[in-house]
Design brief:
The complex is a heterodimer of chains A (575) and B (309). Chain A contains 15 helices and 21 strands. Chain A is an alpha+beta fold and 575 residues long. Chain A has a 6-stranded antiparallel β-barrel. Helices cover 32% and strands 19% of the residues of chain B. The N terminus and C terminus of chain B are likely disordered. Classes of the chains: A alpha+beta (575), B alpha/beta (309).
Amino acid sequence: MPFPRIACLAVPLFPLAARLRSEPDLVREAVVVVEGNGNAARVIAATRLARDAGVRPGATLPQARALCPKLVARARDEMCERAAQEALLEVAESFSPRVEDTGDGVVFLDLEGTELHFRSLRRSEEPGTSSEDDGSPGTSTADGSSDTATPAGNRESPGTANESPDTWTGWEGFGPSGTELAMGRALAAAADAAGLPARVGIAGSKLAARIAAHSPESPVVVPAGEEAAFLAPLPLGRLAPEADVATTLERWGVWSIGDFARLPKSQVASRLGAIGRELHAAARGLDARPLIAREPPSTFEEGMSLEWPLVSLEPFLFVGRSALERLCQRLESRGLACARLGLALRLEPDGHQERSISLPAPTRDVKTLLALVRLDLEARPPGAPVAGFTFVAQPDRPREAQLSLYGPAALSPDKLATTVARLFALLGPGRVGSPRPAAGHGPERFALVEYSPPPPPPVHRAPRAGRGLLAVRVLRPPIGLEVITGEPRPGGSAGRAAERTPVEVRAVARGAAAKRPKIQGAVKVAAGPWELEEEWWTEEPVGREYWDVELAGGGLYRIFRDRGSGEWYADGIYD
Amino acid sequence: MLRIQTLTLSAEPSLGPAGGLPAGSRGEPPDRTLPSGVVERLRSALPPALRARVQSARELARARAEAEREPLATAWRAFDRLLAGGLPRGRLVELHGGRSSGRFSAVLTALAAATGIGEAAALVDLGDGLDPAAAAAAGVDLARLLWLRPEGVRRALAAAEMLIGGGFPLVVVELGSPPLPGGRGAEPAWLRLARAAQAQGTALLVSSPYRVSGTAAGAVLTAGRGRAAWHGEAGGPRLLQGISCRLALAKRRGSGAEAPGVETDAAFALSASPLAPASPAPPPSPARRGRPVPRIAPERPERLLAAAV
């Protein structure tokens, strides 16, 4: 590809498209997005149904309601737009590694080198088909009203309110490249799948690509090297010159971009300065600044402002579910999963709360994530009505498994992650994981780590013969005991040992009297003591005398006497 | 194997119902299903040494499915003998017994065998009685073990169902010592658990102090009262060596395993201690009263004790 090729992905009526992406149930309704408060709120974008009823951008909300009584009005939502812009960028990044974010539903991507991926589509695609889809906000521009509905603050298309697509007759003369056309269609389809009806323009410069993307037909491909000819018949206002520069050019009698491009470059630069030089280059189809690739963000966000503050959990989970679904869809498109879920809540009247939900394994299972959000909100209620929320997903690579022909089958990583997360939600933190011995000698100690089993061996192997070791069932926490010890006997150390030998034990309730195993009876055999001493350097040293006792009624226990308090406990059953 | 394949392919056209040319050579789509009896006729035409090696696709699929359903060997002879090779996949096996009956040791042995061959395993530990250091000493590969510490029987069953759905080949539900928090659990829940295990081909072992799973169990093993083995004489210093118990098959469903009522002896030795003497045998099992029961060879507990110490 000798010339740079740039594609522009533009979403018409972006504030409305972003809102409908968050609330897809409203697609078939007459919806307007307004900016401002109360009766001063002005319509900035409207769906086709609303426009058919006569609602136009700039109208106040009471005027719009008078024209369309069933009108659904939504305030402009920055959170929705930010998430939609990120989703659009992710669509572009799935096609090219170099993507520039210009905001307001417009994205540029460098197509250089990507045409090889779409060469196979060239024959199967037929140029000239429109990607219109009734009911979506983008399609509402098919009648040429997209520019008039674009918010005034949109810097991408100022001054185009009076233009009609019919004036852009120059497009008919360009033979689109089949490969690029296929790429354009694939881009539009991918954006549509992400819930954003976008239009695509492909050209050698950003300006030409952007103008091509605002055409009612999509995609539009400007052949390489013909950008200047493509731009020539367009009015000069499409270059978005500064007001004083525009006035100067009007005085010169320059009305179209082509007229301006034909002026001598050096003369323009000497009269209009650096601004004039950049405008002249743009008029000739050259970008003054190259495409500036963005760094992919480290997190994924989805959220929205709520129409009414929510006070109960179920409605919030209902709204949050769709946001989580969109979030997981975005993660899936990148081959990622959520390793940690953050939730930022905007509270009424002016509160803000952030919480983080750790996941035992990366997952994309919406049900699991929603269950964890529910548990967290139930455990720590926000304490005020929720007016808006944002889910922030910290992405991580999902675990991968290599299938084995001859060895044991590995667990499916996705399934495992989902299962572990659901168990985490069911049992709570600290109750699911892979066990590990903890530092120290106390048998009740343990550590739990994230469950991540190593891959199974490549071939089946026979199980090793069991060691036949007797296990101890640990009692957590230890059960308090009343112990009757032996009578003191004369005779040195043997007598002292007999004095401490348990002869009868009985469980007593100390602290929380939960349902615990009943331990009671005369001691048939006792062996011990074995001494355990640790952490003597701390303020709470541990000193225990352990005994193995067999009760006459059955049962083999491990009991100990705490040296500090002199109390007896059972901390294990040989079983 | 190559010779067999060649023989099968060359024999097929001549054994077809129409005879002559194969179907595909006449411009018709080849018939991929053999008429009934073709495999038998082919076998009868082969030398006896090769007959057993000729199998139809359906027989191969069946053999493969059976291979996948091979029991999960526990490497604990008492279990493997009574259950015909180990824990059957797709079945619920209940092991119940009182305190110090060796139930928990058996659980760890099963986990050690499964994780030792590279399978993932999960332990739903209602009694919260696992000591990771002891489990590692018993041979459990802790990295392959998922440990769950539920607080009630209901949650334990729900967690076990999730684990089965997650594809774990071995799930052990250890209900701990009585009293069980939450009771025995509803029988429909056990039935659902058994069906889930059957659908997923999971070996499900339930260790409980008394019968809990009702009709859902595919096999029930009863661990008798354990008898402690002590070293040393009364009045002198004593040292616990291990326990021995009697394991009986109380119920079984399906074929292959021993008949109900068969018993065997099992023994577990305490982890090696520097003070432990070398391999004294545990006391003999008490003679059973009443009706004599069929016996199979004991497990040679002295060998286990010797290996342990």
